[in-house]
Amino acid sequence: MPTSISGVHDAFLSMNCIFHLPIFPVKSYQSSTQLSPICAPEVAVSSSWGHPVSEVRFIPQINKNARSTIFNSLVSSLTKGVGSGWRHYFNQFVRLHCERLPLLPIGLTSFKTANGSHGDGDSTTRGVDDNGSQNKCGESAKKVLILMSDTGGGHRASAEAIQAAFELEFGDEYKVFVTDLWKDHTPWPFNQIPRSYSFLVKHATLWKVTFHGTAPRIIHQTNFAATSALIAREVAIGLMKYQPDIIISVHPLMQHVPLRVLKSRGLLKKILFTTVITDLSTCHPTWFHKLVTRCYCPTPEVARRASKAGLQPSQIRVYGLPVRPSFCKAIKSKDDLKKDLGMDEDLLAVLLTGGGEGMGPVEKTARALGETLYNEKLGEPIGQLVVICGRNQKLAKRLQSIQWKMPVQIRGFETNMEEWMGACDCIITKAGPGTIAEAMIRGLPIILNDYIAGQEVGNVPYVVENGAGKFSKSPKEIANIVANWFGPKAEELKKMSQNALKLARPDAVFKIVHDLDELVRQRDAVSQCSLSLT
């Protein structure tokens, strides 16, 4: 337990990262060109937003002694149980950090060129890709910034699906960037969120407490406000780097702080901020923010949660979960795919996956299937197995060393999952929303063998109650389910395949990007109309 003020401060920062305590909504104030007495004497910021990137200058950092004084007062008030007093110091602390932000020339590619004139397509703007290198694009190209974080593989997969759909549908009309805002643009401990998440989900009880403990609005709103106070400047610089016309969040922790930054600079009417929710049912309340232009929901259940959180019908769209466009393409027949992938064309196949990292009871389940899918009386297999080990090379080597009695394919990290799913007849996986959505597009009955407490809990009844699959954590029971599907309960397998196809939304990612394109066109039309009237 920290015994000093500095110790409390460090502990607060660490908790904010480790527990994702994504803070009180604090009133927004306009920046001033006048320096506060407690700010270091550096360059003041102009109030105009028309400066080119090269001329951007930042307002000063808060003097360390002043910041310490405020923080000491805050802690003192908290420890003494003072009500209104500590709120006063807290709000002062937030204002000093959050509202003196860098002058962001973002979102202006459709409104002003670098020289301050209104863009007419003759000038060029400069964007930077995710690794910081410079890229030139025409003035007409709109810039899309997708905010994600590698807390699980689903967020990046959705981001890359949206990026690919923009490229397929609009070519060079849009330039799309994907960035992990926390990891790439914030200091320690906030840049450790992906690592913290990996630690937490390995300890189910700890993650469950974190997920549900931060769900109340007063908790996560309060923490987001404090987070903004500490890292608003870094977030602002990170956003400035891309000069986006559209910002798309595919992560629950990517709404509140960026929106606070944009609101403080009056950019919410110039930049379209949208959310694409990547959870199918029990999503965390931090997904929802009333200031977004659009909230794309994968299921009606999530849409109901969005409405309950205060979003208006005009903000909500139910299109489905965005998956890679390759899943929407016409593929070969199951027999042709089996032949191309080196599988037995005469046997039904089960696909067993442990995700990108090859986690979970993959080996135990594979061994159980190896025993159950072999008919000892007939001396022949009744099915075949494909195991996706992801990046888990040790798992792959252990499985390859087994003497199998039936056809088995041991694969590593695969980029053509649409083909493997198309070649198989059912799938065994944990309750990740991306894999579930992809399996449904391919009409695969799903056996869920695990889930992450919190966001994946609702995925189990979503699959089971809709008749698209079953749930079991027992490798032996799972193997028996598959054996029955490949034998006496073949009709059940067929029915579940049909139910999975009914839930599939293969065109979701295309509906999302086309709706975004329409929003951009509407905004530009309003902008042109406003210019013609001035």
Automatic annotation (TrEMBL):
UniProt lists compositionally biased (Basic and acidic residues) regions at 119-129
- Classification via SUPFAM superfamilies: UDP-Glycosyltransferase/glycogen phosphorylase
Q: Which InterPro entries match?
A: Diacylglyc_glucosyltr_N, Glyco_trans_28_C, Glycosyltransf_28_UgtP
Question: GO CC terms on record?
Answer: chloroplast membrane
Q: Which residues form the Diacylglycerol glucosyltransferase N-terminal domain?
A: 155-323
Chain coiled-coil ranges: none
Q: One MF term from GO for this chain?
A: 1,2-diacylglycerol 3-beta-galactosyltransferase activity
User: Which keywords appear in this protein's UniProt record, sorted alphabetically?
Assistant: Glycosyltransferase, Transferase
Lineage, top-rank taxon, reads: Eukaryota
Top-rank EC class of the record's enzyme: transferase
Q: Glycosyl transferase family 28 C-terminal domain spans which residues?
A: 353-469
Q: What is its EC number?
A: 2.4.1.46
The answer, when asked if Transferase is one of the entry's keywords, is yes
In Gene Ontology terms, what is a biological process of this protein? Answer: glycolipid biosynthetic process
Q: Name one Pfam family in it.
A: Glyco_tran_28_C
Where is this protein chiefly located?
Answer: plastid
Query: Where located?
Result: Plastid, Chloroplast membrane
Span list, region Disordered: 115-136
Which family does the record claim for this protein?
Belongs to the glycosyltransferase 28 family.
User: What is the name listed in the Swiss-Prot or TrEMBL entry for this protein?
Assistant: monogalactosyldiacylglycerol synthase
UniProt organism field: Taxus chinensis
The taxonomic lineage of its organism, from the top, reads: Eukaryota, Viridiplantae, Streptophyta, Embryophyta, Tracheophyta
